């Protein structure tokens, strides 16, 4: 996910200060004659390294001295008085991510085709982006300055890839020595300063499963509630990531893991009042098991990591059907089209869509799209590419086709293979929409799916 957030940063060179990308007209920034390309160098004498620094140093201050390097090369010093709540109306360049110093066995960068976009090879390991976007870091190379910043600026929560609390196993998985792998003191420093942590385990059969996993969960549970949750997600192999030290996740492995971890979850729920250690949805789907009920997930602390998405989707779909019961479709026969998704989610979506078709006489079809681009056991919707959708276009029927919004960059209608949505549209004979569930539900709610060609533009 985060890959999308860093794309422009790959080509940036670190410079001092932070560059203004846009200024809202009529805002305080515009009044101060700030312009795109200007750089904010200091606030009240303190250096600004990025927009987080600017936000932190300007927050709550009513009297400010801001040093600006204009895009023309001039230096300005602005003395500002403002109301506490008055916004500057500025947006900034993206943060240039710090790179990791690990050699993880399962690193996703090794799983990319050689032709993948450069941004897919960015090995980000950045506590700022962990705070901003929920990206995981391993903390193996966090500097003292970064640690001070996390604590001073309250960059909480942090998302930490622990993988195993057994040091030998962690070092092996990360490709670093034991000393570097040991983050016990760093985690304690954060936790003692009131920074919350969500942890992650990428579960690799025969390496950090079984007893190692059990110990990892219990060691982290000792740190609850400051360690708030643990996400356990399965290793994903692509056809390019074929390290012989890695063993593929199988359905049988998933069933065994569910059996082992559910005992721990029951124990922790009784003692901590929370499930605490959550298995990724993919583990249930690959095991052929139903995902747990809503209450299992609490406030869905790791939904961005694929934990509870299926349950949340099922509940939202139920709510949509209830709304439609109260206000049936005006023209259900016009809801005749195809919804494309990844193979892992397709059975879940098919069941829900079949209920809708039966009850409301709509004619939606679900197509499970194979991931040829990455191959291996990659089956999630978010990693499907333009080429994958195009290869499945002959299975489309009806008046429109929907692809998952998550397959596009967050800020541009481009897929992982570089194909733009308009290019994909050119290969389809029917209008193509990029929807997330909220957009899908809203379109169905308003009977507009069939008529909204403009949604392609909206997705942009
Ligand atoms: S921490 Fe590991 S998985 Fe993440 S980018 Fe670095 S090497 Fe890859």
The biggest sheet, with number of strands, parallel, antiparallel or mixed sense and barrel status, is: 6 strands, antiparallel
> Distance N terminus to C terminus?
17 Å
Radius of gyration: 24 Å
What is the overall pLDDT average? 90
Structural class computed from helices and strand pairing? alpha/beta
Q: How would the global form be characterised?
A: globular
DSSP summary, beta strand count = 14
Which segments are poorly predicted (pLDDT under 50) over 5 or more consecutive residues?
1-12, 448-460
DSSP helix fraction = 25-40%
Question: Could you walk me through the main structural features you see in this protein, from its secondary elements to its overall organization?
Answer:
The longest helix has 22 residues, at about 250-270. The strands form three sheets. Strands 1, 2, 3, 4, 5 and 6 form a six-stranded antiparallel beta sheet that branches. This protein is an alpha/beta fold and about 450 residues long. Helix 9 runs parallel beside helix 10 and helix 12 (about 310-325) runs parallel beside helix 13. The protein has helices spanning about 1-5, 30, 50-60, 125-135, 145-150, 165-175, 180, 185-190, 210-220, 250-270, 280-285, 310-325, 345-360, 385-390, 420-425, 435-445, 455-460; strands at about 20-25, 40-45, 45, 65-70, 75-80, 90, 160, 195-205, 225-235, 275-280, 335-340, 365-370, 400-405, 430-435. The protein is globular, with a radius of gyration of 24 Å. About 35% of the residues lie in helices and about 15% in strands. Bound molecules: iron/sulfur cluster. Iron/sulfur cluster binds near residues 108 and 125.
